[in-house]
Design brief:
Order of helices and strands: HHHEEHHEHHHHHHHHHH
Number of strands: 3
Number of domains: 2
Helix content: 40-55%
Low-confidence stretches: 1-5
Radius of gyration: 19 Å
Mean pLDDT: 78
Distance between the termini: 62 Å
């Protein structure tokens, strides 16, 4: 008999600790040097109060002060400041992939979390994220219906996340029974990665094209911390693919914009990605 997610969520809430522990161990194995010595909080969305829960706009979220904002909900599991993510537990495979996606956001940052923000600011910022996502008519910031479909899922994010994906595939290939447990056959890190980064969702080239454009970089840097990866110049093929994708998207997008809107959009993009635009 197949166990469904609904069956799992119907179990006593303490049961959820086991898959969360697996996820945390999985993420720590992906980036051992980056997460060493800091708490890492993976919070299941369905365990939070309703105002923290999202509609179907996304499967997870994070912010630099999310841990402080969720301290009361983390309760006895609180071990001090550290990176945090909220993950929706709908589909077993998505549970891992969403955690991987959010880890990309954590590791793209200069710092894993904002150490300076007071609790009041943390609560305001993180609750804003949850309230924004709970709006039925929310305008998405990324994805196929957003003004810029790849906003906040750009070249640096794709690169970091592909390094995580490479490492995850190496772990999956070992068949680590404890990390994946009963979910191993649901994982699909080899093929079911369209929701992770790049691809049609973001109106960019396929994720495997980006992986190929990185060449052997993920293998060569598999034991390196992510600041070292971020501070290393990306392969030219990877940069060229990203540049072609952005320009291709712009050529399609400009058809629906008047001159003023196009100039405004170009100004925003040039400020955010100066390396795309020629001097």
């Amino acid at each position: 008999m197949t166990t469904t997610v609904a069956d799992l969520l119907a179990l006593p809430s303490d049961w959820i600790r086991e898959p969360v522990q697996r996820i945390e161990a999985f993420l720590r194995q992906l980036a051992p040097l980056d997460f060493e010595g800091v708490p890492l909080y993976v919070v299941v969305e369905q365990e939070l109060p309703p105002h923290w829960q999202r509609v179907a706009t996304a499967l997870g979220y994070t912010s630099p002060t999310l841990d402080a904002a969720l301290q009361d909900h983390i309760g006895d599991g609180w071990r001090g400041r550290g990176p945090a993510m909220v993950v929706r537990f709908d589909v077993l495979r998505h549970f891992y992939l969403t955690a991987l996606h959010e880890a990309g956001h954590l590791l793209e940052r200069e710092a894993l979390y904002d150490e300076l923000a007071p609790n009041e600011t943390a609560t305001t910022e993180a609750q804003f994220i949850a309230e924004w996502a709970a709006c039925e008519n929310v305008v998405p910031t990324s994805g196929p219906t957003a003004m810029v479909p790849f906003w906040q899922h750009e070249r640096a994010y794709i690169r970091v996340t592909l390094h995580l994906l490479y490492r995850a595939r190496q772990i999956e290939a070992t068949g680590d029974a404890w990390l994946f447990g009963p979910y191993e056959e649901q994982m699909g890190l080899v093929s079911n990665v369209s929701m992770l980064c790049a691809g049609e969702t973001y109106q960019l080239s396929d994720i495997e094209r980006y992986m190929g454009a990185l060449g052997d970089e993920p293998k060569r840097m598999a034991d390196q911390p992510f600041p070292e990866i971020r501070n290393t110049k990306p392969p030219r093929a990877f940069c060229n693919l990203w540049r072609r994708d952005v320009w291709g998207w712009l050529c399609k997008a400009k058809a629906g914009l008047d001159r003023g809107q196009m100039n405004e959009l170009l100004g925003r993009l040039q400020e955010r990605w100066p390396y795309i635009f020629p001097d």
